[in-house]
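[INFO] parsing input record for Globin domain-containing protein
[DEBUG] input buffer:
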Amino acid sequence: MNSDELAMIKKTWEIPVATPTDSGAAILTAFFNRFPSALEKFPFRDVPLEELPTNARFRAHAGRIIRVFDESIRVLGQEGDQEKLDEIWTKVAVNHIPRRISKESYNQLRGVILETLTAVCNLDDSQQETWTKLVDHVYSIIFKSINEEGDAI
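[DEBUG] output buffer:
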């Protein structure tokens, strides 16, 4: 990414990171509403969809999602940023391997993340392209660590 793209990512990121738990909850709520079977892979799978927004386990997980993105966005543009991104997202992938999350499910979440960011940040087409570039890079790191069924490679 060039310096203008990095600046745009960091600037637009200020919106969702201002309320990290609520932002993560918006992503996960949209994800589970669109793909209800995905809920089975989460520790709060026994909680009805309508109760998720107030569930402590759900909100904690939602906040963690935004924090890992925040950690990633903070390192962008720093010396060794690609190595740091590899480290951050490989750890995420490895931590999720026991859940055997398919690449299809990861990609479904990818779409919801981008749609939510676009809506929350009011992204234009160029900004959407830049965010897509970043999220695609993150996903390429994750997918280096897992196979189609979500097992370790």
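[INFO] The helical segments are 3-17, 20-34, 56-75, 81-96, 103-121, 125-145.
[INFO] shutting down worker
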